[in-house]
Amino acid sequence: MTMTEPLLKVRGVETYYGKIIALKGVDLDVHEGEIVTLIGANGAGKSTLMMTVCGSPQARNGSIVYAGEDITTKPTYEIMRTGIAQSPEGRRIFPRMSVLENLMMGGMVAENKYFEDDLKRVFELFPRLKERQHQSGGTLSGGEQQMLAIARALMSRPRLLLLDEPSLGLAPIIVRQIFEAINELNKTDGLTVFLVEQNAYHALKLAHRGYVMVNGVITMTGTGKELLSREEVKAAYLEGGRH
Amino acid sequence: MDYFLQQLINGVTLGSIYGLIAIGYTMVYGIIGMINFAHGDIFMVGAFIALITIVALGITAATPLLLLIAALVLVLVIAMALTAVWGWTVERIAYRPLRGSFRLAPLITAIGASIALQNFVQISQGARNKPLQPLFQGGFQLSDGAGTGFAVQLSYMQILIIVTTVVLMAGFTFLINNTSLGRAQRACEQDRKMAALLGVNVDRTISLTFVMGAALAAVAGLMFLMYYGVVDFFIGFVAGVKAFTAAVLGGIGSLPGAMLGGLLIGLIETFWSGYFSVEYKDVAAFSILAIVLIFMPEGLLGKPEVEKV
Questions:
Q1: Which among B180, B187, B202 has CB closest to A94?
Q2: In this predicted complex, what is the ipTM?
């Protein structure tokens, strides 16, 4: 898209689980200020790519460069201190911690002085969390947990936000709320978002650019609109996904 | 009644020592799901370090009281620091290389570490009992036994043990519940992968858990030494098994559970010895553990595993 160096540059990444190959040489770019969506069927390797960016598991071959720095072999906790945050698959809320404590965990890598302001900001974004701040994470509904997972990721003041299926298992109205929140963060704060989705229609509409992954390789790329209009994409990923 | 009161005092004292050791078991189990069988021996090492420091500093009962207290605080700090290094080392050598290996592997190295520590102390310090003259004599006479013929004593030593334990446990509970280190530890306990995704250095957090457990065990070691006045290289085994029982009774993984469990095991043992037979005190403690586990498999204060969504 632009000529500048991308914020996240993934080149020829191969990831294995034991002897089984999950990513077979993935190339992907995310530029500063973009929303990039990765779609693909269940088991295509989308979540694996997201976790590989975070070094868990690490790529066996290829390279991942973030903000000009090679992070391929860095330990996860160091990567997460460089401005990358992830709201992972399955949300992974700490069940025996309160909502507030979950958010404190998210804010751990950020400087303390920002905490109050950031807390206010995520409570504005997701007012439900404010009501439930003293409730333990395990007692929240699926939608609330999803909001909490995103809010927790935001508390680290990320430059690059990785969102793994934020719409999974949620009611359409909540999906809309969450996608609106993502859009707003991108527009007003210039947050760069890399989004993995099965809910392809909404995710591609939201995105500047998209990628399609099949069996551990990228098969198509283009702007969100282009991908939405492609017959193959429609047939494979949009059947019934428009609602 | 007087007799009962005396047993209660003795039981709480013993329970305090068990509770301090039990915290180390329960925290390590909570964070890596492994029983650190070497923890009892870490307690023993702590007792020896305390003894060596006391002898090296030349502390005796004849030392003026204020100086004695200051010296004992110094002994406590030294014992905690050095024992913590031992705890850290055991984790680094025996457990960390095996993380991600099959579940039984670190359990086996734990037993190995336990034997290694015992033998090391046996060889370097000798196998004989090491006595220590009592540093604090006397105490409060709560009842002179005029009517019952039984005098109730609350010794200064017992007060010291109970007060130190209460202070340490309160401080420790605060640390776990309210500091960012404590939060990181609880996060690792609940979901290590997610903790790493939030920038927590999981290995370092686990190491610190071992360090804290070992430091508390060192406190227990010093108290055991001063209370009973004798240590040998094998005290870690029995105390370790008891403290482990306490942790399981209270609900392994639960911090208040370990404290409660320690207290209960101490009380059960003393009361059984006082009213029935000394020989069967261990049987009593373990029987009650078995009965509790039949009806409450997760222990008294353990967390039920239903919250997972």
A1: B187
A2: 0.93
